[in-house]
Design brief:
This protein is mainly β. It is 8% helix and 39% strand. The chain has two domains: 2-103, Efflux pump adaptor protein, beta barrel domain (Elongation Factor Tu (Ef-tu), domain 3, Beta Barrel); 112-183, conserved putative lor/sdh protein from methanococcus maripaludis s2 fold. The protein is built from one helix and 13 strands. Strands 3-6-5-4-7 form a five-stranded antiparallel β-sheet, with no helix packed on it. Strand 10 (124-132) and strand 11 form a beta hairpin. 11% of the residues are buried.
């Protein structure tokens, strides 16, 4: 791909770009990271990104890895981060597209539930374990970090590691359980 920025006979200065040549065979992702966050970014970290032009119903997550971190802080207090794409032959990727990206700066394994599975009641956080069809048990949980609609949970030792949890509608289930208890 090539962009021509001048026409024949046009006067140009020595600093004005005349042409831009881009090789679409080897695209990269270039990110702008805030100065306060750059210390956590390192070569090799996973970058997950979607195109800003994707619609909400058709978000396709793509991945890259940090290849180079800039050494200069820009006037806007940001640093450039350069990533190499894991899959370069994606026809939707074009030079100059905007992306929404997350750099995984720390990775750990933890038990987590969707936020819709958690409820706060009487000063304590709970999740619901499925006991049988139509029967549920409230289990107290300690909450940890939250990200992307999920929250880390620490379960009581008495909860079986294979327990099935309700994943959405915890507040509705709590209301039904409390109403049923009041009717008895």
């Amino acid at each position: 791909m090539r962009a021509v920025n001048v026409t024949v006979g046009q006067s140009v200065t020595a600093t004005e770009p005349l042409f831009e040549i881009v090789d679409p065979e080897h695209l990269h992702v270039e990110l702008v990271v805030f100065e306060k966050d750059i210390a956590r970014v390192q070569k090799g970290q996973l970058v997950r990104f979607t195109l800003a032009s994707d619609s909400a119903g058709s978000l396709r997550e793509r991945t890259a890895h940090v290849y180079l971190t800039g050494k200069a802080i820009g006037e806007d207090r940001t640093v450039r981060v350069h990533g190499h794409l894991d899959e370069e032959n994606d026809p939707a990727l074009l030079p100059g597209l905007y992306v929404r990206a997350t750099i995984e700066t720390a990775r750990s394994t933890a038990s987590a539930l969707p936020n819709g599975a958690l409820v706060r009641f009487a000063g304590q956080h709970y999740a619901f374990v499925v006991e049988a069809v139509g029967r549920y048990r409230m289990v107290p949980v300690a909450l940890g970090r939250s990200e992307d609609g999920y929250t880390e949970v620490r379960l009581p030792a008495s909860t079986a590691p294979t327990a099935l949890f309700v994943t959405d509608g915890a507040y509705s289930l709590l209301a039904k359980m409390k109403n049923a208890a009041e009717e008895e």
